[in-house]
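Why should sequence recovery work at all? Because a backbone constrains its sequence more than one might expect. Tight turns favour small or flexible residues, buried strands favour hydrophobic ones, and helices have their own preferences. The token representation captures these environments compactly. In the example below, the structure is given first.
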């Protein structure tokens, strides 16, 4: 944990001290906000053999500085490195980012987290965690529309043990990571393949919403307490 915080402090210091690094990060953030996948892909390619390393740290950046769209990084990794290696890169970096967010919240508390994510969003997660109890993290990870960073920060404010959070995050983010990586890998191929991959992503989200009432019924307060 100390190592992660030390790296975070060093990264922030370098960002503030080195103008070229600051400009590069700001450019990447702009492309992420605009969800410009083609421009973001070209940005990563400009780093040559260092592209995977840059992608790794940018994924962590998108998760800490909520609410930048991390799916752009996952999609681009699939496009550049293939569904398998791109998926591993995205999954691993997201796990590191989730752990950092968790410990930022646990160490610094709610006032600091409210400066990163909105108070309204945190209030929503309070109700979500109260309703679904120990299943909250896994359920949230399986629903694509729920902010990845928000759940990571919110989890750090609860009594949930880190390993429970970490395992639920690892399992829960797998389906979306696989789908976005496959979609990215096939972006330059058959339009039909891209279409069906996109449909799969949509269906995944719809299924998550459809099963919500089932979870509400099964994991009532009395059953998860």
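From this structural description, the recovered sequence reads:
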């Amino acid at each position: 944990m100390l190592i992660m915080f030390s790296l975070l402090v060093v990264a922030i210091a370098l960002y503030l001290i080195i103008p070229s690094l600051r400009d590069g990060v700001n450019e990447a953030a702009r492309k992420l906000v605009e969800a410009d996948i083609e421009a973001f892909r070209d940005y990563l390619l400009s780093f040559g053999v260092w592209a995977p390393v840059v992608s790794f740290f940018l994924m962590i950046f998108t998760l800490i500085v909520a609410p930048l769209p991390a799916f752009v990084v996952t999609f681009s990794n699939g496009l550049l490195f293939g569904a398998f290696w791109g998926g591993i890169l995205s999954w691993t970096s997201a796990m590191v980012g989730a752990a950092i967010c968790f410990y930022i919240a646990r160490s610094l508390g709610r006032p600091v987290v409210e400066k990163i994510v909105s108070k309204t969003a945190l209030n929503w997660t309070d109700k979500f965690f109260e309703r679904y109890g120990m299943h909250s993290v896994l359920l949230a990870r399986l629903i694509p529309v729920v902010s990845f960073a928000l759940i990571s920060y919110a989890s750090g404010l609860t009594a949930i043990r880190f390993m429970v959070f970490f395992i639920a995050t690892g399992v829960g983010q797998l389906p979306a990571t696989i789908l976005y990586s496959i979609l990215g890998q096939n972006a330059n191929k058959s339009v039909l393949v891209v279409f069906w991959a996109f449909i799969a992503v949509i269906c995944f989200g719809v299924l998550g919403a459809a099963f919500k009432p089932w979870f509400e019924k099964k994991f009532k307060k009395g059953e998860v307490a």
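A few observations help interpret the result. The radius of gyration is 18 Å.
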